[in-house]
Amino acid sequence: MRHCIYPGTFDPITYGHLDVLARAVKLFDRVTLAIAHNPGKSPMFSPEERVELIKPNIAQHANVEITTFSGLLVDFAVEQKADAIIRGLRALSDFEFEFNMALMNRHLNASIETIFVMPAEAYSYTSSHLMKQVARYGGDVAKFVPPNVAAALTEASVSP
Q1: Which whole-number Å values give the CA distances from 139 to 41, 48, 73, 147, 155, in the listed order?
Q2: What is the CATH number of domain 3-124?
Q3: For the whole model, what pTM was predicted?
């Protein structure tokens, strides 16, 4: 059974993330969507809130599970008995960072492959950071995030 880890902060999850996940589901028998604890990114939502925001949006995928992790991604992948890490590439600007990360992961554990997947063109310019910024200033993010996520962004943006 082929298993991959789809890691990210997913703060919040976007349709671009879900598009990459749908592609991973076609390639692997089992996909673990792994929410990273990354306080350095100043997350808007706690890892537990992100899990709850994501759950209804992955329910149609029977072979997807969701969890959180901290520490080195390759260690988590080995612990989960994964064959690969899947990463989305939106634009050329993502490539350098992701390429360096993949090489470091390979250095740390050569048995875990990294696979890059491009989301649909419609999502190539969206990011969680951008969604938070737009929502914070009252912009409409409904085209880029699921309805429950848009509502959570709006609520979090107006809360003190």
Answers
A1: 22, 25, 34, 14, 13
A2: 3.40.50.620
A3: 0.92
What residue has token string 């990294």?
Answer: 114
Measured between alpha carbons, how far is 97 from 5 in angstroms, rounded to an integer?
Answer: 18
pLDDT of residue 111: 94
Distance (Å, whole) CA 30 – CA 3: 5
Tokens linked to 121: 């063109």
- Report the 10 Å Cβ neighbour count for 25: 19
Q: Which two tokens stand for residue 95?
A: 């490539």
Q: In terms of Cα–Cα distance, which of 55, 1, 10 is closest to 31?
A: 1
Give me the half-sphere count of Cα atoms (radius 13 Å) on the Cβ side of residue 145: 28
Please identify every residue annotated as catalytic: 17, 41, 90, 128
DSSP string for 66-125: EEEE-S-HHHHHHHTT-SEEEEE--SHHHHHHHHHHHHHHHHH-TTSEEEEEPPPGGGTT
Question: In this structure, what are the phi and psi dihedrals at residue 153, rounded to the nearest 5 degrees?
Answer: -65, -45
Q: What is the pLDDT of residue 159?
A: 60
Q: Identify the DSSP state of 40.
A: G
